[in-house]
Structure formats: structure tokens, C-alpha cells
Amino acid sequence: MRQDTSHSTLVYSTAQKASAAVTSPVAASWSRCLNLYHLAPEEARKPVQVDDIVFREAHQRMERLIGSSSDEVDRLYQMIGRSGCCIILADADGIVVDRRGAPGDDREFRQLGLWQQNVWSEASVGTNGIGTALVDERSVVIHRDQHFMSANIGLSCATAPIRDHLGRVMAALDVSTCRNDVNDMTLAVLSQAVKDAAARVETNLFRQAFPGARIVVVPQANSIAALLAVDSDDLILGATKAARVALKLDDQLISQGMPAADVLREARGDGGSDLDDAERAALRRVLSRTQGNVSQAAQILGISRATLHRKLKRFQPQ
């Protein structure tokens, strides 16, 4: 591990190179810390601590998220909490509103500021997992001397943002450790665990936001958090960030009431018409209700058995 002076020298030299800010997310964050927040890496700086009133207000705003994420945070703690890690839930401003940690590690984490009421934004403590994930709106790993502040180069952090039902970043879920034996493989495992937990929290929030809707998973997105909320007329009511990216949706398109079938068909490059889709769906529903009995299905539909056979044949894959 570099000494504080060499770390500060590295930060200044890297952040001042214009090309580094383009090619490296960490260098871009270091540049923000120097030029935007006017921080100095050699400062013995602790996270800003908000007063009790501000913290209570932040906690109240996050109550629904805290409740929705409690099981996931507990599960994450059961997996890794007893191996020298703490789990942090911070709001969009970087205020720590909830945490989990082993009692034996609490003193060290509290000294570092990984505690409720403290602010882990980039403006407060420079490049760090929580603050940088919130600014970049993506999952990050900040390993030891990738932190901006020399005081924090003993930390390793894996963080994922959590988005609300409109796709906006509302929080960050973080795992931090002070262990000096953490390697890239360990951080990769921690990062994936945090991303998976954050995705499940987003899914819970989205389902709660549209309680009466049908929830459709977008297969093209390859993400468990790529979801559409669809009403009884097949019109899209809402979409998660992953679904919006996969299907090229935005608030304006969603507000227009786009049919989910059209959006999914376009994404797959399929043909077909709304009438064909509706008729095919009606036939499948009736056959399902009659457990495949064609005669009974034809009777329910008010058509002959021969007509039903012709329709079924028309909709069979060629």
C-alpha cells in the first residue's frame, strides 16, 4: 500500500492529465474532486455528519425503501457480514440511512465514518463507492488507493445504485471492508452480490408502485430488473431503467400508452398484426380453459369444430 504522500502525488498527477479523465472512471472522479469539489487528497477529512433533524427527514423519505430492502440487506449480511464487511444503504445524497455490521467490527467502521447519519458523497469525502456510484449512476468498485482521500485507502468498496419505478437513482447499496487481504476476485464476487441484491430491491419497488398491473419481464434485456407494468388493455404503465434501455422507452412514450405487444414485437423484429395476436390469444385461452378439448372450445366460441381447426392451423408456426 502506498504511503499518504505518494498517494496524494498520484492523485494530483493523474487527475491533471486531461486524457485520464476520459479513459478512466476513477481518474474522472479524482478530477471532479479536485476541480469541482476543491478537495485535497492529503486532508485528514472525515465524512460530513448531518444533524439529527436532517437525518430524521432523510430516514423518513427512505422508509419505504428501507422496508422493501430489509430482507435483501439481511441476506447480504448473512453471506458476507461476518467476514469483516459492513453493508450500507445510503440515500441519493449519500446519507447513510441503514447499515449492517458485526459488533466486533463496529468500532473500526465507526471511526472511518461508515455509520448512520454520515454523508459519503463525492463532495464530502471524494472518490468512494457510494458517492461515485451515485454520480456515475452505475455499479462501481473502489479498491483501496483508488479512493481520493489518503485517509480512506485502507477501504475497499463495492456499490450498486438502486433506482425507483421511474428509473431514477434514489439510493446506493454498498459493501465495504477494511481487510488488507481483499483481492480482485473477492471484489468481483462482492460486486456481483451487491448488484444482484440491488436488482431484486428495484424489482420489489417496481411491483409495489404498480400493484394492479401485470408485470412483464423483458427477455431481450438479460436482466431480472428489466420489467414492464402493463394494464388490462396491454398498455404500458411503467418501465424500469433496464427495460427503458432495452426497449428505447422514455417517460413521453410511456405516457402515450404504448401497447406492450407492439414494443416487444418491434424489439424482436417480429411481424404480425394486432388482430392476429388478439385472435391467437383468445383461442389459446379457451383451449386452456377446456384443457385442449376442441369441440368444447368451439362451442364456447360459437363456431364449428371445423372452423376452429382451420384457425388453429393458420396460427401454427410454418
Residues in helices, as a percent range: 40-55%
> What form results from the Cα inertia axes?
elongated
H/E order of the elements?
HHHEHHEEHEHHEEEHEEEHHHHHH
Q: Label the structural class.
A: alpha+beta
Largest sheet: 5 strands, antiparallel
Number-wise, the strands total: 10
User: Treating each run of at least 4 consecutive H or I residues as one helix, how many helices?
Assistant: 15
Q: Which parts are unreliable, with pLDDT below 50 for 5 consecutive residues or more?
A: none
N-C termini distance: 64 Å
From the alpha-carbon coordinates, what is the Rg to the nearest angstrom? 25 Å
Average pLDDT reading = 88
In which order are the strands of the major sheet placed? 3-2-7-6-5
Percent of residues in β-strands: 15-25%
Overview of the molecule:
With 318 residues, the chain is α+β, with helices and mostly antiparallel strands. Helix content is 49%, strand content 16%. The protein is built from 15 helices and ten strands. A five-stranded antiparallel sheet has the order 3-2-7-6-5, sandwiched between helices. It has a three-stranded antiparallel sheet with strand order 8-9-10. Strands 1-4 form a two-stranded antiparallel sheet. A hairpin with a 5-residue loop joins β9 and β10. α1 (4-15) crosses α3 and α5 packs antiparallel against α9 (184-209). The chain is elongated and about 85 Å long. The model has no long low-confidence stretch (mean pLDDT 88).
